[in-house]
Design a protein that fits this description.
The complex is a heterodimer of chains A (83) and B (404). Chain A is mainly α and 83 residues long. Chain A has three helices and no strands. Chain B is of the alpha/beta class and 404 residues long. Chain B has two domains: 240 residues, Thiolase/Chalcone synthase (Peroxisomal Thiolase, Chain A, domain 1, 3-Layer(aba) Sandwich), CATH 3.40.47; 149 residues, 3-Layer(aba) Sandwich (Peroxisomal Thiolase, Chain A, domain 1). In chain B, strand 13 and strand 14 form a beta hairpin. In chain B, helix 4 packs parallel to helix 8 and helix 12 packs across helix 13. Classes of the chains: A mainly alpha (83), B alpha/beta (404).
Chain lengths: 83, 404
């Protein structure tokens, strides 16, 4: 598991108050019970933690998976490094 | 029970700086949405487009000494109230001063003042803020300033229920007049929220559309913030007729409800309850309603929920309703939105023109009614409702009838 994936999973687990082992790359935030305002807070925590901006397109709370979220974070981190 | 009529209206928003200009833009289907000019666009992400008031020179309306007391939200309310009062022909001499109320809906008022004064403290590290900061930012300022400007000495206050504030204000004014407490009210809403702090706060909620506001359309991506004010003179039919006033429309009913559910997500049952209450209060059967000025924010959740609520209340007649959201024109002016949308309703009743829902792309299965896309529609409108559903689960709906 990459550091980004590990840290993202930890942020979600903390916000959702769930065991970190229940979070799989294919889980959606909705599956994990992270809905509505909780999901917005998770994205906020991720943005603050990594110092990035996640566009709304990369934050599909209903269908987007944790794996896709991690990919989006990695894309933003790479873009930041290239700046 | 006293019948209530509207005898004056005033407005300022991205569509124009008086009510006739605003209505003309609505009837022509013009949009006031454009790239943000008042804040550095580099500082905002999705909030790149807004519906700003244009060409407004406060110096034309207020002298310098007065202006230092007025937040932008209060300036808009004063401009709109004056236009409405002038049109109504009402003056507040003698007993009438105390028999008139002022009720203004606003989600936050004072935002521009808070933003600029806090910038002085936290960013500029200055030791003091403007001494009239409190006078400007207090939420009751719009109602107080209107009462002062026109010598209205009856009950005056501001109603705050986020995006339903204006409709709650109409309900309050209607109840005060019906109860016999007053004979008239200067009533509406105001908001001036296009400052950096407020824009970023909305952006953080991830509800701002990056392109434009597309109510009820597939591919809708959220709201576009707007600003402005619309104010009205509401009075008893008896007083209006005695004065020989021109009657613009009859306000027949208001309905309110609270979801008591989620702080942000809308509720079909809550919305439906407010609509039903407004129809009942107005002695309107669902089949009498021709036009619905929708809350229609352009978020996934609101538009699907509002559609479901309309199905629930109107049954088969839902498909016969002309439904439109004017938010792609004047933006979502939060606490002022219900007041601006009443301009659309009164225009539809008086002129037989239903303003369109702009920026519509294609049908969404969750929004399967007639949203009058793209083009205004000529049709007789005998009765209409205007919906407002706020964050916090607070709903308020007003029902109006055409005056012969």
């Amino acid at each position: 598991m990459s550091n980004v994936q590990q840290e993202t999973t930890e942020i979600i687990a903390k916000q959702a108050k769930i065991d970190i082992d229940t979070i799989k790359p294919e889980s959606t935030l909705k599956d994990l019970g992270v809905a509505s305002l909780d999901a917005i807070e998770v994205i906020f925590d991720i943005e603050e933690h990594f110092g990035i901006n996640l566009p709304n397109e990369d934050t599909d709370f209903d269908n987007g998976t944790v794996g896709q979220l991690v990919e989006a974070i990695e894309r933003q981190l790479a873009a930041k490094k290239n700046d | 029970m006293q019948r209530l009529v509207i005898t004056g209206m005033g407005a300022i928003c991205a569509l124009g700086n008086d009510a006739p200009s605003v209505w003309q833009a609505m009837a022509e289907g013009r949009s006031g949405i454009a790239p943000v000019s008042r804040v550095d666009p580099e500082r905002v992400r999705a909030a790149g487009v807004v519906a700003e008031v244009k060409g407004f020179d406060p110096g034309q309306h207020f002298d310098e000494a007065k202006l230092s007391q007025l937040d932008l939200a209060t300036q808009y309310a004063l401009v709109a109230a004056k236009e409405a009062i002038v049109q109504s022909g009402l003056s507040f001499e003698g007993e009438r001063a105390a028999r008139t109320a002022v009720v203004v809906g606003s989600g936050a008022a004072g935002e521009v003042t808070r933003d600029t004064q806090y910038h002085r403290i936290y960013a500029d590290k200055l030791p003091r803020v403007h001494p009239l900061g409190i006078i400007r930012m207090m939420m009751n300022a719009p109602a107080s300033q209107i009462s002062m400007a026109h010598g209205i000495t009856g009950p005056a206050f501001v109603v705050a229920s986020a995006c339903a504030s204006s409709n709650h204000a109409f309900a309050q004014a209607a109840m005060m007049i019906r109860s016999g407490l007053v004979d008239a009210a200067v009533v509406g809403g105001t908001e001036a929220c296009l400052n950096l702090g407020t824009l970023l706060a909305w952006e953080a909620m991830r509800v701002l559309a990056p392109d434009t506001c597309r109510p009820f359309s597939k591919g809708r991506r959220g709201i576009v913030l707007g600003e402005g004010s619309a104010m009205f003179v509401l009075e008893t039919l008896e007083q209006a007729q005695a004065r020989g006033a021109t009657i613009l429309a009859e306000l027949v009913g208001t309905g309110m409800s609270s979801d008591a559910g989620d702080i942000a997500a809308p509720s079909e049952l809550g919305a439906a309850a407010a609509i039903e209450n407004a129809l009942r209060d107005g002695n309107l059967s669902p089949s009498e309603v021709d036009y619905v000025s929708a809350h229609g924010t352009g978020t996934m959740a609101n538009d699907a929920t509002e559609t479901a609520a309309l199905h629930r209340v109107f049954g088969e007649h839902a498909r016969a309703l002309a439904i439109s959201s004017t938010k792609p024109m004047h933006g979502h002016a939060l606490g002022a939105s219900g007041s601006l949308e009443l301009i659309a309703v009164i225009g539809a009743l008086r002129h037989g023109i239903v303003p369109p829902t702009l920026a519509y792309l294609e049908p969404d299965p969750a929004c399967d009614l007639d949203y009058v896309p793209h083009q205004a529609r000529k049709m007789p409108v005998h009765a209409a409702i205007s919906n407002s559903f706020a964050f916090g689960g607070l709903n308020a709906v007003v029902a109006l009838r055409r005056m012969p």
